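sanity check this record:
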Amino acid sequence: MEENTLREQLADLLIKGNAHMPFYEAVADFPLEHINTVPQNVGYSFWFLVEHIRMTQWDIIDFIVNPKYKEREWPKEYWPKKGEEATKDMWEKSVKKTIKDIQTMVDIVRDPETNLFTKIPNGEGQNILREALVVSDHNAYHVGEFAILRQVVGIWPKNHS
């Protein structure tokens, strides 16, 4: 029973955020004319940040599920190429894929066949529990950053609380 509780608490952390804003809320009603806006004193755009969340999250999922996983080069393969700008389609794909991959992590941790504590075969001692926490922690950090940058640029919807 405790293991089911742990699985549900991990799922809640990934989906709802608990003590932090969830990804889907941070990107809701985002004005598309600002996807490539680079806030003052920041080295990247809103899309860069979303794409970084997506790329990093996918890398962790790939690490968990792919026996032929190949470690990516940091930071080159965790951020879009410098100077790259997104189209509306690229933005929408990044957001949808990030949300889909959050659900993939949730499905992994909720699956009773998933041993949360077994070492991942191609890792150095990491287990699925740790990786679920890393996804949640990484997302929380950058979602908070994204939300603050929306405030700084002044692009929250008028009814946002």
User: Anything to note?
Assistant: Residues 2-153 form a domain with the Four Helix Bundle (Hemerythrin (Met), subunit A) fold (CATH 1.20.120.450).
